[in-house]
Amino acid sequence: MIIELNDNLLTGNKTIDAQHRELIERIAALVNACEEGDGKMKAIKMLDYLAEYTEFHFAEEEKLQQEVSYPGYAEHRGKHEEFKKTVDMLHEFLEESEGPTEAFVEQVKEQVVDWLFKHIEGFDRSVAEYINYVNNPNRL
Questions:
Q1: Residue 113 pLDDT grade (very low, low, confident, very high; cuts 50, 70, 90)
Q2: Exposure on the CB side of residue 101, measured as CA atoms within 13 A
Q3: What is the per-residue burial (b if ≥16 Cβ within 10 Å, else e) of 77-114?
Q4: 140/136 Cα distance (integer angstroms)
Q5: Is the pLDDT of residue 139 over 80?
Q6: Could you tell me the pTM of the whole model?
Q7: Which class does domain 12-135 fall in?
Q8: DSSP code at position 36
Q9: Domain spans of the chain?
Q10: Among 124, 133, 51, which residue's Cα sits nearest to residue 92?
């Protein structure tokens, strides 16, 4: 599975796209570390690193939404909270295992990579379009 920011994931908002690039790079690093058998401690460190950046990114996105009174803010924030719980669950899964197993890597791909790509293509693109509309009301 290729884990990289592609044209389908671009929202057109420079801030959001730059943060998505960083987030996707961190996820790819986590998956690569797990697949290369770098060990439990490195995988935990990479997952912590991902969780930390996720917190930052979601806060930034939510701030942008609040600034423009985005009508889907509550639902979008709820999706972010779901994702944070997923990362916490993966952290527990990893803590309880001897290391990053194939099952763990599959969970990361399904619950992090797939979720994030769908979230960006749907929710985040809608936010970026709304921000663009609010900032350029005469451009229809």
A1: very high
A2: 11
A3: bebbeebeebbeebbebbeeeeebeeebbebbbebbbe
A4: 8
A5: no
A6: 0.87
A7: mainly alpha
A8: T
A9: 12-135
A10: 51
